[in-house]
Amino acid sequence: MATSTSKSYYWQGFRDGTPFIFVAVPFGTLFGVFATEAGLSILQTMVFTAAVFAGAAQFASLQLLQDGTPTAIILVSALAVNLRMAMYSASLTPYLGAAPLWQRAFAAYLTVDQSYACSIVQFEKEPDMSVPQRMTYFMGSVSPLVPMWVLATFIGAYLGTQIPDSWALDFALPITFLAMIGPMMRTPAHVVAALVAIVVSLLCVAIPYNLGLLIAGCAGMMAGAQAEVMLERRKVAP
Fold first, then answer.
1. Can you give the pTM of this predicted structure?
2. Helices in 38-70 by DSSP H: which ranges?
């Protein structure tokens, strides 16, 4: 009976995660194209996407690679972009923290925006789920994304080797970032964080190795957090 229930949670997670394919496929394809445009081979592109498995960090790292940024700064920048994953992990720990270490390690690798969004909603909706059921649901939610992301990256990398240099597709990378950021502007705190980050990045544009972006990111996060605190105080104020 328990096995049957776990299977049903897996397929429930699979169904909940499937719509995100429509986001993962175009972004994965685009990353594959730009990775080969930046000089990576198809094999290097596939190793890159399998090792990192984080769309925003992959795009950011690719941009820095094109600019000839030192490896250490690329790694720090990628970690900064993925800082939200630490918050996701902290949020999931009360639900998955009792799982075996190897399962938690696997879940950590597969924690992305989509798997987190599906899982946290499900776990809060059904608080009586057991830890194995929660882990089964989590794995189900990310199962449709992993093969499609890898396949889309391969297709993009293959297509990228066929695109003539005269097409000059570099302009699409900043447009992609704008498309990723736009839907995230859901609260005043998000808007404040974005505006502060933009202003600081412009002021720090002369700093070498794009370190101004890290400074701008930190400033934006602090401003957003402060704006969130101020908004919460207004809500509780008489």
1. 0.71
2. 42-52, 55-66
